[in-house]
Amino acid sequence: MSDEAPSPTTASFTLALDDRSLGLLLSEDLYPLDAIYGAAYLFVDRCYLYFDRPADKQVQVRFRAKSDAGDTDLEAIAGEFCNELLNQVVRLQVGESTRTLREYYLARAFFGDDTRASIDALLAELDADELEEDPLEIQVPWDTTPSGAEG
């Protein structure tokens, strides 16, 4: 590893085997913080994750193995993390690009005229099917006439 600081648009790996950990330095210009958190969440069962902000617009994610893991295991975890990070970035981009369409359909589902008409039709149908005869002769609280009496 070189002693110079990584540029803000690259990701660099630092491997520290003495404490069974591997660090990954990420730029927020390439990977939004939400994508970093989303990817990290999928790895909490496999390793401990520590976050640090060494500089503005940079996030360092340090992976520490929960069990005895060699450097190849940690490198594999970091590789899988990078793949998942890319997946999360694409998910966020697709979500952002389809936001207007999703909001439109949601508004249409809640506030569209068709929904109100169908609710009114169902209520009218329930009113029409009001219990005219009660074969079990169960008196309802709003009924003022006794079960056997005709008005």
- The number of distinct helices, counting runs of at least 4 residues, comes to 4
Strand residue percentage: 15-25%
Task: Describe the sheet with the most strands.
Answer: 4 strands, antiparallel
CATH class term of the domain at 12-98: Alpha Beta
The structure class reads alpha+beta
**H/E element order:** EEHEEHHH
Determine the CATH topology of the domain at 12-98: Alpha-Beta Plaits
Low-confidence stretches are: 1-9
Q: What is the general shape?
A: elongated
Mind explaining what this structure looks like?
It is a single chain. With 151 residues, this protein is α+β, with helices and mostly antiparallel strands. It has a domain of 87 residues: 2-Layer Sandwich (Alpha-Beta Plaits). The protein has 4 helices and 4 strands. Strands 1-2-4-3 form a 4-stranded antiparallel beta sheet, covered by helices on one side. β1 and β2 form a beta hairpin. The N and C termini lie far apart (97 Å).
In short, what is this structure?
It contains four helices and four strands.
Key terms:
four-stranded antiparallel beta sheet; 151 residues; disordered N terminus; alpha+beta
Layout of helices and strands:
Layout: E1 12-16, E2 21-27, H1 33-41, E3 47-52, E4 58-65, H2 71-97, H3 99-111, H4 113-128
Antiparallel strand pairs: 1-2, 2-4, 3-4
